Amino acid sequence: xxxxLHRQRPKHLNLFKISQPLPAIVSILxxxxxxxxxxxxxxxxxxxxxxxxxxxxxxxVLLQYLQNSAYKIxxxxxxxxxxxxxxxxxxxxxxxxxLGVSLAQARTGSKLVLAAGVLLTLLTGLLLW
Length: 129
Hints:
The protein is mainly α and 129 residues long. The protein is 82% helix and 0% strand.
């Protein structure tokens, strides 16, 4: 029996070839979005804040950038990072409270996190235009 189990185990674990369940994908995306919010998110946000506060001309330049459609589309990516990270963080807090820990509930919660992140990002995009 032990030899049979040893033969079934993967010899070289390649995470890109393994089909991850949806809760794992949402958890991985939560970590990635948190990293990307930290860097380059915080430095870019602080740079924009500094430019907007240093002079009225700096504020006008930043405003012109933000009125460009290409920059608005590009801005939706960090908005999605933030909203997905927020929704996934709420899901993780609920899991810490032992809410939604069964397999069916975890899958449903993961679907809700993905849907809420995308829906809130689309609503933010509508507000930008």
